[in-house]
């Protein structure tokens, strides 16, 4: 049986970059750029007035002139009109081009304007440039602003917009089929018979993966072998990047998936990982392209934790191959934990940040991997190594978000 680290490495080894697609910029929020975007102009592109007021020649003001005739007004969006003379002021609005010849702006709060004459009520600024956002102070034309691989966060999207990227090349979404299996499962809207339960795993996996950049399609297949075979055959041929199955990977007589997947040409990369929950996890890929297949154990806690530990990082790695997926963040245990089996323990925890900024992890009581309500208080899980059995309060361990 392989370790969590080995299983993770084998999963990530299959994460090839996603092919690019071109999208209108507003639709590309949250996506990862597949092209470099450079500054098409200086930032700012002209000497920009930063405060509403009057623009003057600093030399005149510093030389003792306090009263300036006001020639005209320069509004944002109007072409630049120069200062008519060194002793003359122009009214200027924030965002306007600084009138050529002016090199200082005095705020309206610091002047009195009466009958086209401005009187400055403050001491001259020590240097020219006051209240001016000078051309090219932030970035220069040609500077690489957003290299390929950058995620289009709100700030990055604003920069892409300002350099005129009306359409952008971005990694396309990964197409993911999430397939629940099992004859005991009925629709959410159904009233289950005493021996039935409502499906929940596929929704949990969808909720985990969709915000991470997956185009998720949900399916449900019964345990009956011919129907399962036909359904899986169709799903494997439908052009998905990944097929995420929940259930039917353990040792029960209806746990057909490992055998069936092999029969359908999906080669096993591993089956069983040295972890609890999630030990029966299966992973494989179809030779000659086609989707990778995650066979997640069906117990709801196992499904969600293994999806968070393996599937989401695989998805993020495909979007940003150079950066790799974000790793876990350490958190400090608040209570002693003992775990005897020689398995890595994925321990659901509630994370709180203390006054010193330390992330503290309090174990959440989960009554086994069928207790999906037990996860309600958890926002992460610690990965406690298989080699140890006793974990003292105050020790730090990797925490993965849920
Ligand atoms: N003899 C052994 N039995 C089991 C072993 C083992 O090593 N030897 N491993 C146990 C572990 S650990 C787990 S986890 C489960 C995993 O089994 P499967 O992946 O085959 O899952 P199922 O049997 O299909 O289902 C398990 C459990 O989860 C419920 N389930 C399944 N799918 C959903 C869904 N979409 N929504 C809600 N609930 C779901 C299902 O009804 C079962 O109760 O095997 C142990 N057994
Ligand atoms: O994965 Mo099983 O749920 O270890 O309990």
Automatic annotation (TrEMBL):
GO molecular function terms listed in the Swiss-Prot or TrEMBL record: molybdopterin molybdotransferase activity
Function: Catalyzes the insertion of molybdate into adenylated molybdopterin with the concomitant release of AMP.
Required cofactor(s): Mg(2+)
Family under the similarity heading: Belongs to the MoeA family.
Pfam families for this protein: MoCF_biosynth, MoeA_C, MoeA_N
Protein name per its UniProtKB record: Molybdopterin molybdenumtransferase
Coiled coil regions in record: none
Swiss-Prot/TrEMBL keywords: Magnesium, Metal-binding, Molybdenum, Molybdenum cofactor biosynthesis, Transferase
InterPro entries to which the protein is assigned, alphabetical: MoaB/Mog-like_dom_sf, MoaB/Mog_dom, MoCF_biosynth_CS, MoeA-like, MoeA_C_domain_IV, MoeA_C_domain_IV_sf, MoeA_linker/N, MoeA_linker/N_sf
Entry EC number(s): 2.10.1.1
